[in-house]
Amino acid sequence: MLSTVSRQLRSHPALIPLFFFIGGGCTMSLTYLARLALRNPDVCWDRKNNPEPWNKLGPTDQYKFYAVSIDYSKLKKDRPDF
């Protein structure tokens, strides 16, 4: 299969950007899925030691990937401790 791809790329060099961008898109999507699985407070991998990880988040913790208009460092605590 690798020889077929290399033969096609030699005969059609216009396919090189296509392979580059599709490979980059796949890499970025897999990286984002790994970030969601490891850093999202809604995901719990260890149920014995930390059954509710969302309760340990402070009001200044930013867990979103991109915050448009919220400055998390200035937020006050508005919920009770459990």
UniProtKB/TrEMBL annotation:
Source organism, top-level taxon: Eukaryota
Q: Which InterPro entries match?
A: B12D
Which compartment or compartments is the protein found in? Mitochondrion inner membrane
The beginning of the lineage is: Eukaryota, Metazoa, Chordata, Craniata, Vertebrata
* Name of this protein: Cytochrome c oxidase subunit NDUFA4
Q: Where is the signal peptide?
A: none
Q: Which family is it part of?
A: Belongs to the complex IV NDUFA4 subunit family.
Question: PANTHER family under this entry?
Answer: CYTOCHROME C OXIDASE SUBUNIT NDUFA4 (PTHR14256:SF4), NADH-UBIQUINONE OXIDOREDUCTASE MLRQ SUBUNIT (PTHR14256)
Gene behind this protein = ndufa4a
Q: Where are the transmembrane segments?
A: 15-38
Q: Which GO terms describe its cellular component?
A: mitochondrial inner membrane
Stated membrane topology is:
Single-pass membrane protein
- The primary site where this protein sits is mitochondrion
Q: Which organism is it from?
A: Carassius auratus (Goldfish)
UniProtKB keywords: Electron transport, Membrane, Mitochondrion, Mitochondrion inner membrane, Respiratory chain, Transmembrane, Transmembrane helix, Transport
